[in-house]
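stuck on this fold:
=====
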Amino acid sequence: MGNFVRLVGTLAVIAAIASFGLSAVYNATHEITEQYKAEEQESARREVLPDAGSAVFEMIETETRLQGKPFVYYAAYADEAKSEPIGWTFTAYGKGYSSTIETIVGVVPDGSISGVKIVFQQETPGLGAKVMEVASSNTLWAMLSGNAVDESGARPWFQVQFDEASGTDLVVVKSESEEGILAITGATISSDAVTGSVREGLEHLLSVVGGGSPEGEDGEDAA
């Protein structure tokens, strides 16, 4: 009996120490992780809007909901005067095959998309994860011969398709002969998730900034 009590006591102490250690590590790294995420999203917002390198962003919270989440967007201004916005950004959330795909979307005043950047996904490698794939134009021979083109700044081909798109362009197609967003082969669910969430978000944003009252499955009257 005494051995059993000592064993239980030892395990309890070990569990307490492990719990304390994990808590300490979380507290030490949580702030750094959150700061890194905020910086990454800030960088993405500037990337998806043209001429936004020195823009001033203002976060705007609305009383509406979209895709099950409170709708928040950022207005971008050329300077601190904040006279007229040069564009807006928002985050779209689309349910993919194995994860919720998060996409930051840039929109310019004419209502078209200036760019998108997927900032989170955990889709199937080789299939849905290709939403992040950069298509290389370099051949094996070019790489071996030292004539490969520098593609360090290249963007994922799937995401490039959204540039200058309007709401009516945001439909998934399966052939290059059709007009729309070309689906990733074998990953229609992931393609639909990104495209559908971006389309819904764009429509919602334009209703909000245009003074309308967006309504829908998750919508409420705009403030």
In short: The radius of gyration is 23 Å. The chain has two domains: 1-48, 49-209.
